[in-house]
Structure formats: C-alpha cells, structure tokens
C-alpha cells in the first residue's frame, strides 16, 4: 500500500516518501498506479512500504518486441544450460530447440485429428519427432501425414485423466510420493518411496488405485520435498496483494517492516507457496514485524547481493556509526549503498510518526520495504521509508534491527 501525506520541516518543506508495499493485480486484471495525494506540493510524504509497489501504465516496462525471423533459436544462457545439463554440443542444442518447436506445432494439429482416440503424446529425442498415441489404428495414416509418429494404445488420454482424477480424491500415506498420467506407458504411474513400497499403507493405496483404472508402480529413492529455500535478506514475499522484502533471518522466521502486514496475516514466499504468518507487527510508532515460517522453509544467515556483489553472510548486529558506509538489499531495486546520515530520527508518515529511525543516503523504491540494511557483515535494520528513487537519488530510513530483536525476544541467525 503506497501511502502519502505531507511533511514540513522547521527549515522548510522536504520531499519524503515511505516505501510501503507493491500491489499485485488480481488474476486476469491489470495494475493501476495509485496517484499520491497532494502531489502538487513539494513536501510530499509517501510511505516507502517497499513491500509491494504500485506499478502503472505510465511507469510500466514496454512490452517485449517480437523476435525477428533471423533471431537465434534461444539465448546464449539457454544454450549453455542445454549443453551443460543434457550433454549437447552447441549445434545439437540449437537443432533440438528447432525440432521441439516444430513438434509442438504438429502435436496441436494431431490432437484435433485424433479426436476421441487421442492417447497422449511425447517428444522423442532420438528421432526429434512428436509421437502420438492412438486407440484407433484407422487414424494412424492421417496423423502421420501431419509429420508425427504414431503408437496404438489401449487407453485414451481422457480415460487416463479420469482415472487420475479418481486417485486425487484419495488420501495417500507418506510412502507414496505422487501419481501422474504417463502417455508413454499408457497408464497412471503411482510413484512410491522404495523403502516404503511393501508397507501395509502403501500396498493398500496401490491396490485401491488399481480399482480406479490402469496403474503402474514406479519407485523413488526418497520422498519429495519443496524447494522453497531459505529466508534470505532482500528476497520478496507477499501478503495479500502486497509485495515486501525480507529483512533478516532470525531463529524461527524473519524480521521485516511493520507496515507490510498486520499480526495474523498470512505470508507467501517468492514462489507463491505458503511461507509463514505475521506473529507481531507495529506501525506507526514503530515500523517492524516478526514473521514465523512454516515447515518447508528454513532460515539462512544471508543477504542477497543480487549479482552486484557476492551474497553477504550475516555475522552479527553491531551498530554502524553515523558516516559509516551501509548497503541495502531489496526485491525491487536490488543492491544499493550509501552512508549513515543520522540516528534516532522521528519520521512523520501520513499514518503517524515512527520513532528511533536511522537515516541513510541509500535510495529505495516501492517493494523494497522490509529489506535488509547491512554494514560489512553486520545487520543494521529493515527498510521503512524515504524519498526519491534509485534513478535520481534519495534518502531512506530504517528501523534498527536490535530494537526488533529485543521487542520480540528473537535471536538473529548468524554465520
């Protein structure tokens, strides 16, 4: 929520803005720019709830230009990854991409031609052609004429999908890693953890699954887990339709800005998965919050350098003096540095005053709220608000991290 108001200093007006959050568009909707009130006045105070930023038409990035016909099949980065992970030469990687593009186009037409006899399809790396499964051999010639290879199977894709949907209504034991439709096997594949395959619960689930349709059992070495990763300073998180940034990992969660969400609010991680809950939040008066994290996430004593520098390990929270260099990591403007300009400052946002803030010459923008301020390897605080931007410059304030740790009885996660 971008917040705006006026702030007039004793020596005259001074523009300031708080970095609140970035609002996300509803599904299928568009993002609208929220125009700050009193924008004609020079003393403009915007909450830098650099949690979620309000983006709009005027400031939106232009749409990508269509690729020209002569453009390469893929970026150098993608080609490098194909060579590294699939063991392809540069020439074979480009050929593979062209073949996959052609196969995708053929598959769409072949699916329509197959109609109800369509049994699924897959790309064959050896022939570099699409293979279409059919329950009706009479359709083979028509599908082959489109440029596809064919295979006659017993079950249609629709029948397999129905069988899989019936499995989705069952409760599976932990020894079952998952299930999916495999067109190459013309079956629903139930994957079980190898060490759990013969347990009564797994055997009962497989037996029940086989009553719902064609089932093949596969094995996995271990059970699946999420790759949500750790709570890393500067990374984004989401509360409702607002994006903010993680400040610092603490044992049990992370600290961030209070204006990013109230106590009890649910938090989603960078990948959209459930991440945690605001256990405490204070704003105005203060601008800090503590988020506890769910299983599948873990804390990491790291602040992102976003490629500008190597990621920084956090080794403590010794307070840097005025004049010291300091850097900030946030999910919108990434990594920026400056100096400490003042301490124990009261900042009067439109929602009310926030006390004991530290002022810096570091820039920030919407969506950076809550992000990390660090000096060397020492945690300093979480981004609150400021004025200006990272194109023309500005100043920001942060809530000192030691105050947050003391308020909630937290322990900073250090390396």
From TrEMBL:
Disulfide bonds join 244-260, 327-337, 363-390. The active site is at residues 259, 287, 369. One of its GO terms (cellular component) is extracellular region. One of its GO terms (molecular function) is serine-type endopeptidase activity. GO terms for biological process: proteolysis. Residues 155-209 form the Peptidase S1A alpha-lytic prodomain domain. Pfam families: Pro_Al_protease. Keywords: Disulfide bond, Hydrolase, Plasmid, Protease, Serine protease, Signal, Zymogen. SUPFAM superfamilies: Trypsin-like serine proteases. Residues 1-20 are annotated as: Disordered. Belongs to the peptidase S1 family. This is Putative secreted serine protease. It comes from Streptomyces clavuligerus.
